[in-house]
Amino acid sequence: MKPLLPHPLTTPKAPVSVPRRRALVYLAGSALVAAGGPAWSQAAPAASPRPSGAGAERARGPRLVTVGGGITEVVYALGAQDLLVGTDTTSLFPEAAQKTPKVGYMRQLSAEGLLALRPDALVAGTDAGPPVVLDQIRSAGVKVELIASDQSWDEVRRKVAAVGRATAREAEARALQRQLDARWEAVQARVSQGKRSHPPRVLFVLSHTGSPLVSGEGTAADAVIRFMGARNAMSGFKGYRPMTAEAMAAAAPELILMTTQGIDAVGGADKFWQRPELALTPAYRRRRGGQSLLHLDALELLGFGPRLPDVIEQLHQRVLGS
Q: Which of 1, 35, 214, 217 has its CA 20 to 30 A from that of 252?
């Protein structure tokens, strides 16, 4: 069962001009590469017109559009960014990805705008759409590959394999996957060694727009909390619910996890702690010195891309100190 999405997604009517904060709301509801790992290239991708001549086209490779920040990260990890002719508004890392032509918000794609980029392939998550637009893109001869999201390590592996196929770099994708698998196994072994009989209770709060929401089961935030060796303070429901005084008192979180964009949206950490329902929690009593409030960039934390092992290691060290 797919997790409930936070908010009505506040999807804009003009997807090309989606503000960064609204684009990142998606990441919470869907579900630093280590030394020796793949290097991120910051070179700006080519956005020039299609090369003339069939020989030039074959030499350059397939023209690719990616929809989903984690998928776009894989393209850069493979060094295939020169094939990118367009990305969606959640594709914000590395910085060079922000300079690519944007096809809009992932759930409000436009066939006309996307086909104007003349792509050969589109790689996206299964929540991209609307479906009628994807059908139009397929009918135009574009190869469309959709990647299922289940907030697992296998989701990252599917992204790597799909981008390898789309960019005709399958051997490089397999090599990247071996590096990432080794890194993931090392991080999970460390988490396993540092497990406690009573894992700390962590609450993820989504506050990009509107009133704050708390994350239950079946979300990307829930998976991240479990991966780091902690326990989601909220259980018994899927998706997101409003943050209420009753919920805070019952959950008794020892630590609050948020996105950096969420902290900024509420006016900073001090402003966040002024919410009266938080005074009922152990996290509030431990707030001095910033010990009970953690935040990371939304795409880094919830995008389920190649940086996931590093994110989990960082959170595990900060939360469990091992």
A: 1
